[in-house]
Amino acid sequence: MHELPIVKGIFDLCVKHATANNAKKVISVTLKVGELSDLQDQWIQRYFDYLSKGTFVEGAKLVIERVPLVMRCKLCSESFHVNVQERRQIECPLCRGTKLAYVSGREYRVEKMEIV
Ligand SMILES: [Zn+2]
Asked: What is the 83 CA–ligand 1 centroid distance (Å)?
């Protein structure tokens, strides 16, 4: 379960942010999750529920927005979207280069929080 530390990180961030804002309760948390993550929404919510049980974050609803996987060619600097299902052999659509860098698609980020 390598996903648990990731969700724990998100949870800790929520607690820190909510505490800093004197929140009594966390209503919802909007997350940006990269397409490259194979962690399904329901599992993120399940881990989060498990971690938040008995805390003031308990019951918070997670809104998960997927961030497309975008890569950039190191040769010609072209950025392009990659279909996660077909990413076995990725090459630059412009110059066919295979030296690529991640632009987005790997992140787990707290976008916003609704607190009371
Ligand atoms: Zn290229």
From this structure: 17
